[in-house]
Amino acid sequence: MEQYIISLDLGGTTFSSYLIDENLNIYNRSSIDKIKNYSNTSELIDGIEKQILDLINGLDIVLNNVKCIGVSAPGPLDSKAGKILETPNLVLLQNTKIVQLLKNKFSKPVYLENDANLFALGEWFN
Question: Which of 27, 57, 105, 115 has the fewest beta carbons closer than 10 A?
């Protein structure tokens, strides 16, 4: 059974999700959603959940095929605690333990890292 990774890219104004296969190829991508469409943290987390479920829906892929979820977010954040801190660009998620919220939604390991660090890692990897 092939395993996948879900990558969630949170920005200051938008978010999008990607389904990545075992060879780190993008298998599917969501449309971009705007954070301003949500009025509070709970609604935004529900919107992220819906986006991720829509990403795999209809692909003959079930959540059991997803190994983990990686979250890229603007800083400052605490990756070890899984928490977005006082980021000026992501007001609805300030001081939010996003890793725990997504673990509760999906029952999968969730990892959080600063988007600039992940960009550098991606450049190094390629």
Answer: 57
